[in-house]
Amino acid sequence: MKISILIIVAIFFGVLFWSIASEDLNQSVSFYYKKLLGKTIEIEINNTAFEVEIARSTSEKRKGLSKRDKLGEKRGMLFINKEEDLYSFWMKDVRFPLDIIWIKGNKIVGLEKKVPVENNSDYQKYLPPEPVDKILELKGGISQNYNIKKGDKINFSKNLWGLDVLD
Question: What is the DSSP annotation of 40-74?
Answer without folding.
Answer: EEEEEETTEEEEEEEE-SHHHHHHTTTT-S---TT
